[in-house]
Amino acid sequence: MISTTQNLPVRESSSRLARIGRSPLAWLAVGLLGVGGPSALAAAGPVPALVGAGLALLAYWAVMRFVARRPTPEIAVRGAGRDLRLGAGIGAAFLLVSVAVIAIAGGYRFTLHGAVGAGALPGLVAVAVAGALTEELLFRGLVLQAVEQLRGPRTALVVSALLFGLIHLANPGATPWSSVAIAIEAGGLMGAAFLWRRSIWLVTALHATWNGLEQLIGIPVSGHVDPSVLVTITHGPALLTGGGFGLEASIVPVVVSLVLIVALLRRARSSASA
Fold first, then answer.
1. Domain boundaries, the chain
2. In this prediction, what percent of the chain has a pLDDT beyond 70?
3. In sequence order, which residues have a C-beta less than 8 Å from that of residue 156 and are 6 or more positions away?
4. What is the pLDDT of residues 198-256, one digit of tens each?
């Protein structure tokens, strides 16, 4: 008769590894490596950026499926179209209201002089979408959900927002204020939107629409100046216009985002208690 007790250490070891993998810190660490790696392709152009975003999405699914051992309703195809439209609408409204307020205050003036034109559109859209998807997988998919599992949604929202602002300190022309502003208006807004709908598609559309429209109008996106259809000329204090860093360093979108964050968190609370 063959004893099966020799298999017990192997089974126990496998079970132990599975339990470790299911801990939020473990799958967060693996996920950051797996999702963050393909993001380097964004610097190689629009097509590599889209390929990198696709690989990042696949890596995210694999980490959640085989390491965290949890379902991934946040990237489900069903309902994705609705969430994409909703996110794009929120992103467009946020961007256009913020820009309109600054323009009315005399901070922005627009011209076609020096603009690249419509030929730049496909590349701009591709890079904006790819970058937004990768960042949302990292910060809302991984960081926010891992911290939420450990410390709850409020702490998760604050931590993910602060980290999002912190990484933007590396951007051209960044200052402590610009990072604080991004933590609130971007990290806070997209974190609240995710807690409301639990959809990567919604926050990706919000993020991509914001960045894409900002590029098209000709405003630097977090310090990055890209080809645009319009050219925006700034006038007045940097606290109003954002200066060379762009709209994200303006006080206006911070205020607009705070209004949206409160509304979205109320919707999230209502959805959770329903």
1. 79-273
2. 89
3. 143, 144, 145, 146, 147, 148, 191
4. 999 999 999 999 999 998 898 999 999 888 888 899 999 999 999 999 999 999 999 99
Look up residue 52 and give its amino acid: G
DSSP run (H or E) holding 154: helix 153-167
Task: Determine the residue type at 92.
Answer: A
Q: Residue 235: which of 112, 104, 117 has the closest Cα? A: 104
As a whole number of angstroms, the distance between CA 139 and CA 199 comes to: 13
**Angstrom distance (rounded) from CA 121 to CA 8:** 60
C-alpha pair distances (Å), 235 with each of 107, 114, 164, 250:
5, 18, 28, 13
Angle, CA 177 vertex, CA 173 and CA 182 arms, to 5° = 85
Nearest C-alpha neighbor of 87 from the set 211, 183, 179, 259: 211
Rounded CA-CA distance 182/178 in Å is: 6
Tokens matching residue 51: 């390929």
- Output the CA torsion sign for 111, 117, 122, 128: negative
Query: Cβ(94)–Cβ(253) under 8 Å?
Result: yes
Residue 220 DSSP one-character state: -
User: Could you give the CA distance from residue 159 to residue 145 in angstroms, rounded to a whole number?
Assistant: 11
Taking a C-beta distance cutoff of 8 angstroms, is the pair 104, 24 a contact?
Answer: no
pTM of the model: 0.91
